[in-house]
Amino acid sequence: MLRPPETFATARLSARRPRADDAPAVLAAYANDAEVTRYLAWTPYQRVELLADFLRERAADWERTKTAPHYAWMLCLRGTDTPIGSIGLMPDGRKVMCGYVLAKKFWGRGMMTEALRHLLDWAIAQPDVDRVWAYCDLENSASIRVMEKAGLAREGILRRWHACPTIGPALRDCVVCSKVK
Ligand SMILES: CC(C)(COP(=O)(O)OP(=O)(O)OC[C@H]1O[C@@H](n2cnc3c(N)ncnc32)[C@H](O)[C@@H]1OP(=O)(O)O)[C@@H](O)C(=O)NCCC(=O)NCCS
After folding, report:
1. Span 14-20, average pLDDT
2. Protein residue closest via CA to atom 36 of ligand 1
3. What confidence tier does 180 reach under pLDDT thresholds 50, 70, 90?
4. Would you give the DSSP letter of residue 29?
């Protein structure tokens, strides 16, 4: 089974396992921001307790050995321990999907490209992985650009594939990108 490193670092970022006590910092940095969640599968958190529950689940995923885990890392500026974003890998057999989110204050500096490229390069180099991939809303231009800059190639459009509850209940079109062996 795929076992990613629990920590990693890039030029400007360090990544570590989530903790329930990250909740107040994550809420303040991005989890309560409707602009951040616009194209995500969740709506802004209002209560720190619910966010702490979610982070506790992600922390527990690192201990699970049987069910399909969602390996999540908190992204911090190097030399600090305060989360400014998150990135995750979701293995499914020989395929690995990636998702990511960053606080608005840090958008447009190439930071998510840096983190995503690092993780995707690690994942595709694993002998038991044939495909790494990600998808995002067709209107999420910044995320499409990040996928391409991080080394994924655009495969196509999944029509009416996911809901963005911050926008509304209707399923929306997505762009899917991948790198394969
Ligand atoms: C998507 C997201 C992670 C990007 O992070 P980031 O660190 O700002 O990304 P980068 O700086 O590495 O790259 C962003 C690229 O998108 C481009 N971009 C930003 N806004 C854009 C827009 N509205 N239209 C077109 N391109 C845009 C930037 O110019 C940059 O490309 P460039 O280097 O060629 O100029 C961040 O915006 C985010 O967290 N959004 C909310 C959560 C989200 O949507 N996550 C993805 C879900 S699949």
Report:
1. 98
2. 102
3. very high
4. I
User: With a 6 A CB cut-off, is 109 part of the ligand 1 pocket?
Assistant: yes
Q: State the DSSP H helix or E strand holding residue 128, giving kind and residue range, or none if neither.
A: none
Name the residue type at position 82: T
- The reported pLDDT for the residue numbered 35 is 98
| pLDDT for res 56 | 97
**pLDDT at site 1:** 80
pTM reported for the whole predicted model: 0.97
Closest Cα to atom 8 of ligand 1: 107
CA distance between the termini of the chain: 18
What dotted CATH number matches 8-180?
Answer: 3.40.630.30
Residue pair 62/71 in contact (Cβ under 8 Å)? The answer is yes
d(CA 177, CA 171): 19
Helix-then-strand count for the chain, H and E: 5, 8
